[in-house]
Amino acid sequence: MRTSLLTLLIAGVALSGCLEAFDAPREGTSDTADTTSDTSDTSADTSDTGNPPDTGNPPDTNSAPGNPSFSLVYISGHLGHYDSCPDQALPAAGIDGAGQAEPDGASDDAANCVDPCGGWGCEAAELNLRLINNGTVPLTNVVLTDLELLLAPDDFTLPTRAHAVTVDGDTLPTTLGVGEVIDIRVQFTGLLAYRDYRSANSDSDGAFDSDCASTNCGINGARVRAVFASFPLKQEATSPTLYPVTDIDT
Amino acid sequence: MALLLLRTQLVHPASRYRLLAALTLLLAASLGACDGPLAAAEPATTPYLESATERRALLEAALWQPELPYSRELLDSYGFSDLGWELLPEQTSASRPLTVTDAKRLEAGLGLTLGELTEHAPVELPTSRAGWRALGETVFTQLPLREDGYLTWLASRPSRWPDLGVTPNADGTVRGLVVFQARNSRPAVGVTCVFCHGGDGIVGRGDRELDVGAIRAEHAAEGGRDMSELLSWGPGRADVTDDGVPSVTAIPDMWGLGHAQYLNHSGAIAVSAPGTLAVRFETQYIKGHRMRSRPARQLMWAMERFLTGLQPPRESLTPTPSPTPTSDAIRAGRQQFNATCAGCHAPDAGFSGGLVAADTLAVDPAVATTPERGTGSYKVPSLIAVSANAPYFHDGSMPSLEALLESGHPFGVLDTQARQHLLAYLHTL
Q1: Which of B53, B238, B239 sits opposite A27 (nearest CB)?
Q2: Does B223 contact A121 at a Cβ distance shorter than 8 Å?
Q3: Can you give the residue ranges of every domain in chain A?
């Protein structure tokens, strides 16, 4: 019994340390960027623009020998380009089976078109994350379990699906050594136009479009949340607001 | 003389960076006065190159309206030491000019070959101002800023170039279009800065013939999309925002950047210190390459050095007024300018200035109030080589200086003689 209490106490101190790290202001920043957090932390702070301030799991220095641990860090992303392939964009109702990468051979134009597709500008949405094995044992079978779009102003959640989850163009490695760092690219289905989606799905009183000046709900973007798991661990990363690719944005 | 003048509202207060910049310039001037060779030397480094913290500080100082979506996107991802765009791998800095031969191959469906690329990142960094500027010019003209679908389409339609404002160079290359190795390792067509800012073959000059709207509309039409509304942009104009609100602006000349207090017509970016432009360029390249990589920062710093020192080739640009103004007219025009114009177009700041609230101006406020970058103001443009810079205003809506001064200047109209004197003087800038 005494051992169990001691274990709980240690775990509590460790969790407390992590939460403090999330809340701490970042060096030289205005606490707007985002984003990863242990999925057990459901009390993520949000800034006044709707973007959470936390920016990544700090290395877990409390890992005991033999403890698995990993962190996710947001790098970059965009919401794709579907003007010339609107049928490849996310249906307004979302997608069942969100987060699961499609099997090899998925034939979506946008999915297969990581570059301006045949010159027609059809391009899959994308999220780039850094995964760090900061535990003391190798990680095995890292998988993407959930992927969703968060739309302002109330983080309205729209599940989506991944077309590909890759590291340097290859599939995720089956084993990740201690201290190993990989940059993961998640290509997924985005919406045709986020602004239009909000209008079409707004409440009867037009709540989605009201007060946009203070909530950024009028912008053509969304945040993206991804959850990765390596049994028994789960970690999530939420991007700041991402935007569709445009042809001439300077 | 009917004269309505000068209700300037300088919107953005001076920052500590402006003071720092002034002190730096003062120090540089002092060194230059004491030692000639030092005046041409460049410091080995700059805060922009030193750390993410410094870059972040530059960005935050520049984006003085942080809640604008344009600002928000950059502030959310740039300049953090341990996440975001700082973790991106460095882009390739190798390219070669696209040639007419490449275009004909593409037109014939033969595909694009990578060919022999030139690496633009030097093994050793320049040690002189001239060296940095030369490197910056190479970046401006050769480094692919963006890779977009319509560029490959454009490269494969050489027969359409004359109507779209694309002009091959005498050596068979195509200004502003390059071949490079794209992010999936295949050859791709990229666009460099001179695609828009190389008009008449002059580096830095806004291209008055290039019809970006028509290029995109034709490209879309071939792909089955109707984007014919872009035809209304016309040559030399573009809408660079994506906020659903039309805000077409004239492609600007690059002269005067060394004095600029703000970038973008609405002044969404404040130029507060050396490195501000480099941050701006770096974020442009990152977005142009789909946030998958970032440019070599030394190249961005080089481009800042190049553009802040860029002078217009007056002999190639400035039309000779007819009849040639007399020296008396020019002198009177200078006096007129100092009395009525210099309050905004400061002569010691490249005849540019700060911001003016859009609702005090007799111009279309659309660009000043666009959701993505609108500040409610317009920046006071530089008048360097102004007589060769037509059309005028942010949207290119005023065809000539004469027309502008006769009816269109936001702050009023001079009488005929004063106007003629002022025109005589403006031709000398």
Answers
A1: B53
A2: yes
A3: 2-238
